[in-house]
User: Which sequence fits this backbone?
């Protein structure tokens, strides 16, 4: 049967795979949350309904999200963490492959830090109609939700998977505030209810629906038509609900956050050839609402992004191995508005522009070729991608928004080798060059960010990563171990440069009035990320499995304040002197040394008992903009250690009962850079019933 | 096609005229609501506007005032006409600029503000990180901080501690009400003056609040200067400083000196957390005295203008005076308990001014006299 999924990582890549079986055991709250035990991944949360995976020190727009091979990244992905991976429903995930390190050659632009490949559930091949029901809940946020889905076989060649779900989460109770190890004070966000543990500005509602139809006219061909919808509502952005110094009732919330991905794929596979073509349409919509009820003011921003995508790949054998060639293109169309409503008099005033300039568009396209050559114990993988990216934004006179009409021809390349030194031991090495061209968020957006107000820079250039990694992979009987080391040089890295009021674009009062203002600039000079990762999987006894991971990343870049001093306009860094300070500074929000340990005992009758342990050391290496980021306590984020206990019972495909006692010791903890603290001691459950 | 009969043509013509008239009446703008935009040249033209005579000849600077022998040498000494910011990028300037924009729309240039003016003014007022955001959190430093680490931005605290939480508890309701009424076309000049008075008081409180918080955040000293002057040199002020300078150069000078004193304190006491509360208190006291006198002069001037005001201009000035009296009350009672009773009595009279001309003139004199005594020297 034809395989329907993302292109698999080549063997020399550092990667791990999260499966639905892991999700059943861990009961994560979201797709990003599901990655917390993956090696080299650190999940930051700006809000309860958001989550962004740091992979090798990079996140958001510098990592690439693919769903069933389709690019999810749009040109509005902002710098730093974003919420978009949260909009993938864990219930429809078959597996997530985490590819660490640059991956633009194989997967596309933006993959500087890594790639998340989501492989969705597929309809069951069994004959008949198989409805199932899944319920889940958690005490920490009084979450309740469920999903019904049906597998339907339509004759021998067709099959269908239909599903819909809903979930509501309330305020998230933590183990309590965390405190700065410098002044002993808690960070300004989030605010807590009177119990000192329940975090204000949390909670959300989500609805999902999906349909997937697969038709196999022959054993070699598969047509897929699928649509995956996610609709989130009433999701406050925790660090702005309320903002650090504002009244208790001011709140920025995502009134609506939708993604509808509809696509059709054709796959044809023979023993020698594989072809794959996709057409997709992604609708992404955000409606943000900033309430200031004490002043009867309501600001509403609406951004919609329509992305049309297409891709084609052909894999075939030739004299020097297996060659994969292809091309892809994605075009974004942006509509963005903003308005101010005075609720006491019922008057609404449109503002001259939204977060983006309406009518903007963006093209991400490339042609690529990669080759896999195997000789005895050596596997050599090479690839090249040539991209063309184009950004267009009309000018907007009233807001003083500069028109953008730029294109770039970036390129990426990859050379990697896996050398089987011994039947159980492989040496893995690769050199990679990946790229990311500035997107419309970088070039045109005006927005409040954690550290302050960020305004556009229409003159940005692409950022590139050049990395080398070396790994050892041991696979022997019940032992699997990997250790990796990597060094990544980032050229033209986008940094938040502190800016003075005089640098604000015209007609941008919110920029002028902000205490801290930033503009993205290409770093003048190289930035570096160095790190190691280790992973161990061990099964000393047949029912017992142990898994552990350890990750460390160190990142630094030129000091953007010095760059500001040498450019027009003085900087406005928090307590920073315009032309002084260290020559280099840490990169923003790079995770501290962290690790995980998991144990699982599988009983023969379907019962599993286990536990998880997550820990992180304190992070004191802060970038310039981290100092004005109210999410980070003065001096840095304290370390933590959290223990979870798990139990699950599965009876064939008919029944699943899963329980997780999360944060057994009710620790107060926060992943570095997050607005919210992790859940306090709480119980999560999941019940699946299937008529199989 | 020609119509067959002249009568029919006439009837058609009349019908057409009627339809045209109807259409014209439908198309025409509705009649302007009372107080919509227009010029009001008769309302206190400059030649008849009373000019406040300020006499500070008997006043002498305190030995502890800046510049003076009680102060150590510092950065402010070299350029007494200009403040040297700690950080040249001062977000407060945008808020004072917003105040100036609102002033141009609502109460300057002898314009009667239109509904659209109020819409635009409120849009400026409500901008993110703008005036509204700071009014909502502004505290009056004359009153004790809230107990048990509470803050004015927490639920119910503005109601429980209205004196300390002056921004959300006192200024904000005035501004909300005045903007809303102005946007509905209700007594625009009155609402404009209420907004003016409330924002002037906000600028005053803000200058002092920033001096207070400058002990842990040095950039706030710049804000203390900016809230008063709009970030301008001594002889070209905007915002509150412009009001004060137009009525009393000496009072403005003392206030500007106080801003320099604040800067001097943080020059001498440059650590991130200040260690010289003595200098901070001296600067704060100097600033407070001068600014409060400046506010009182503005109030006296507006009261004096009652004599030349016409139509809505008269209640507009009353509204200004009433608004400021209301906002000043708690401070006067707290700091001048001996004058509290007299202040309250005067406030009652201001709140219900007499219709009789003689009594009215007497009230104006009383305000002038009382305020002149209460805030005699800058």
Assistant:
């Amino acid at each position: 049967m034809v395989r329907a999924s993302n292109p698999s990582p080549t063997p020399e890549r550092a990667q791990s795979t999260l499966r639905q079986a892991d999700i059943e055991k861990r009961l994560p709250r979201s797709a990003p949350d599901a990655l917390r035990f993956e090696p080299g991944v650190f999940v930051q949360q700006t809000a309860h309904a958001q989550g962004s995976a740091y992979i090798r020190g990079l996140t958001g727009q510098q990592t690439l999200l693919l769903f069933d091979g389709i690019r999810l990244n749009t040109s509005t992905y902002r710098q730093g963490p974003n919420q978009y991976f949260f909009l993938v429903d864990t219930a429809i995930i078959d597996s997530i492959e985490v590819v660490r390190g640059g991956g633009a050659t194989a997967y596309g632009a933006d993959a500087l830090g890594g790639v998340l490949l989501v492989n969705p559930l597929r309809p069951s091949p069994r004959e008949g109609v198989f409805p199932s029901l899944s319920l889940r809940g958690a005490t920490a946020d009084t979450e309740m939700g469920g999903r019904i889905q049906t597998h339907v076989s339509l004759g021998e060649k067709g099959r269908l998977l239909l599903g819909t779900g809903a979930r509501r989460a309330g305020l998230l109770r933590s183990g309590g505030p965390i405190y700065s190890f410098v002044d002993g004070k808690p960070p300004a966000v989030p605010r807590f209810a009177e119990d000192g543990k329940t975090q204000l500005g949390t909670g959300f509602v989500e609805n999902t629906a999906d349909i997937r139809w697969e038709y196999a006219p022959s054993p070699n061909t598969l047509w897929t038509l699928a649509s995956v919808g996610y609709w989130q509502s009433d999701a406050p952005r925790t660090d702005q609900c309320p903002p650090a110094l504002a009244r208790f009732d001011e709140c920025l919330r995502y009134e609506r956050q939708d993604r509808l991905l509809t696509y059709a794929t054709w796959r044809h596979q023979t023993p020698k050839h594989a072809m794959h073509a996709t057409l997709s349409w992604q609708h992404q919509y955000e409606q943000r609402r900033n309430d200031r009820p004490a002043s009867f003011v309501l600001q509403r921003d609406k951004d919609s992004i329509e992305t049309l995508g297409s891709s084609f790949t052909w894999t075939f054998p030739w004299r020097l191995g297996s060659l994969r060639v292809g091309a892809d293109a994605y075009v974004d169309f942006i509509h963005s508005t903003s308005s101010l409503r005075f609720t006491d008099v019922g008057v609404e005033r449109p503002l001259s522009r939204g977060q983006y300039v309406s009518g903007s568009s963006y093209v991400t396209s490339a042609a690529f070729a990669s080759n896999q050559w195997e000789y005895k114990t050596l596997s050599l993988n090479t690839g090249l991608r040539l991209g063309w990216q184009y950004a267009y934004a009309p000018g907007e006179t009233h807001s003083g928004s500069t028109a953008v009409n730029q294109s770039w021809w970036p390129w990426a390349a990859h050379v990697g080798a896996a050398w089987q030194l011994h039947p159980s031991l492989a040496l893995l090495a690769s050199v990679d060059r990946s790229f990311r061209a500035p997107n419309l968020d970088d070039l045109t957006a005006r927005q409040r960010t954690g550290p302050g107000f960020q305004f556009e820079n229409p003159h940005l250039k692409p950022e590139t990563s050049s990395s080398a990694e070396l790994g050892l992979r041991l696979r022997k009987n019940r032992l699997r171990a990997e250790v990796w080391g990597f060094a990544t040089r980032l050229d033209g890295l986008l940094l938040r440069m502190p800016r003075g009021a005089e640098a604000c674009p015209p007609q941008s009062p919110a920029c002028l009035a902000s205490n801290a203002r930033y503009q993205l600039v290409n770093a003048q000079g190289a930035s570096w990320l160095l790190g190691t990762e280790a992973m161990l999987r061990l099964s000393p006894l047949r029912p017992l499995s142990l898994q552990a991971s350890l990750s460390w990343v160190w990142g630094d870049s030129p000091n953007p304040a010095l760059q500001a001093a040498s450019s027009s306009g003085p900087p406005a860094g928090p307590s920073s002197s315009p032309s002084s300070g260290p020559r280099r500074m840490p990169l923003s929000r790079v995770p501290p040394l962290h690790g995980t340990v998991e144990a699982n005992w599988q009983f023969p009758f379907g019962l599993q008992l286990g536990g998880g342990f997550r820990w992180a050391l304190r992070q004191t290496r802060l970038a310039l903009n981290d100092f004005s980021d109210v999410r980070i306590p003065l001096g840095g984020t304290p370390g933590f250690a959290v223990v979870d206990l798990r139990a699950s019972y599965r009876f064939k495909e008919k029944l699943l009962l899963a329980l997780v006692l999360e944060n057994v010791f009710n620790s107060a903890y926060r992943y570095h850079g997050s607005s919210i603290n992790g859940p306090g001691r709480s119980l999560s459950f999941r019940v699946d019933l299937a008529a199989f | 096609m020609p119509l067959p009969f002249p009568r029919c043509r006439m009837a058609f013509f009349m019908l057409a005229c009627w339809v045209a008239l109807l259409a014209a009446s439908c198309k025409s703008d509705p009649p302007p609501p009372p107080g919509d935009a227009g010029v009001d040249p008769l309302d206190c033209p400059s030649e008849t506007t009373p000019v406040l005579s300020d006499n500070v000849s008997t006043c002498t600077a305190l030995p502890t005032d800046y510049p003076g022998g009680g102060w150590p040498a510092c950065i402010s000494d070299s350029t007494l006409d200009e403040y040297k910011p700690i950080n040249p990028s001062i977000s407060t300037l945008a808020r004072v600029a917003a105040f100036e924009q609102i002033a141009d729309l609502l109460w300057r240039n002898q314009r009667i503000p239109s509904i659209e003016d109020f819409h635009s003014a409120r849009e400026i007022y409500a901008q993110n990180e703008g005036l509204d955001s700071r009014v909502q959190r502004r505290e009056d430093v004359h009153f004790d901080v809230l107990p048990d680490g509470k803050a004015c931005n927490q639920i119910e605290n503005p109601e429980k501690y209205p004196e300390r939480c002056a921004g959300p508890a006192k200024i904000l309701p005035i501004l909300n009400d005045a903007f809303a009424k102005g946007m509905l076309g209700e007594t625009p000049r009155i609402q404009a003056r209420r907004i003016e008075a409330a924002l002037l008081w906000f600028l005053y409180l803000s200058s002092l609040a920033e001096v207070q918080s400058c002990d842990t955040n040095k950039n706030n000293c710049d804000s203390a200067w900016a809230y008063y002057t709009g970030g301008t040199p001594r002889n070209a002020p905007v915002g509150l400083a412009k009001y004060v300078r137009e009525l009393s150069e000496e009072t403005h000078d003392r206030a500007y000196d106080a801003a320099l004193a604040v800067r001097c304190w943080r020059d001498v006491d440059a650590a991130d957390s200040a260690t010289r509360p003595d200098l901070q208190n001296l600067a704060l006291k100097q600033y407070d005295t001068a600014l409060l006198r400046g506010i009182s002069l503005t109030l006296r001037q507006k009261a004096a203008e009652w004599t030349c005001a016409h139509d809505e201009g008269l209640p507009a000035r009353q509204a200004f005076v009433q608004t400021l009296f209301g906002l000043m009350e708690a401070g006067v009672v707290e700091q001048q308990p001996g004058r509290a009773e007299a202040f309250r009595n005067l406030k009652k009279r201001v709140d219900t001014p007499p219709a009789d001309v003689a009594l009215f003139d007497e009230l104006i004199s009383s305000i002038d006299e009382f305020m002149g005594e209460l805030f005699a020297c800058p």
